Amino acid sequence: MALTRVPDLKGTLMATRTRSNRRERQSAGGTVATVGPRNRAPNSHGRRTSQAMIADLESRIAELRTRIAARKAKQKRATEPKPRGPRFSPKWLASHREKLAISAADYAALVGVSALTVYNWEKGKTKPRAKQLAALARVRALKQREAWKRLDALDGVKL
Q1: How far, in Å, CA of 101 to CA of 67, rounded?
Q2: Who's near 97: CB < 8 A, 6+ residues apart?
Q3: At 92, is the secondary structure helix, strand, or coil?
Q4: Contact in structure between 119 and 104 (CB atoms under 8 Å)
Q5: What is the rounded distance in angstroms from the CA atom of residue 36 to the CA atom of residue 48?
Q6: How do residues 28-44 score in pLDDT, each as one tens digit?
Q7: How far is residue 25's CA from residue 2's CA, in Å, rounded to a whole number?
Q8: What is the pLDDT of residues 87-142, one digit of tens each?
Q9: What is the secondary structure of 131-147 as a DSSP string?
Q10: Percent of the chain with pLDDT over 70
Q11: CATH fold of the domain at 90-155
């Protein structure tokens, strides 16, 4: 949606007011150049009301511009492809742990989380965060022997 140029409402209203005041003075029999004391008060009232109208219109224009900008940003976000990281499935995690033939505590040591976290992931109670998903992706590539070797190496290290 292209932004349409908003007309200069303030200038338009001021010009309209000036023309209408000129017409009133001409119809009253006065000259266009001079404003008598009887016309000063109504003119000042008209000026105040037109200034209030201008302020109201300017605030509405500003609100519309922010709405348009927000809508454009939303459309831009919708068209951009979201970066996809590794996917997670509780069933996959349980089957992979069984395939490696290791306990939840050992699997947790490989990933770098607690055993309860792995349990909650397998039950679908919680989902891993982005950093944990990256660690799961690294463990996903492991075969059974490699997993056991890493666990043996981790046994000597205090977690």
Answers
A1: 56
A2: 104, 107, 118, 122
A3: helix
A4: yes
A5: 19
A6: 765 555 556 666 665 66
A7: 43
A8: 888 899 999 999 999 999 999 999 999 999 999 999 999 999 989 999 999 998 88
A9: HHHHHHHHHHT--HHHH
A10: 81
A11: 434 Repressor (Amino-terminal Domain) (1.10.260)
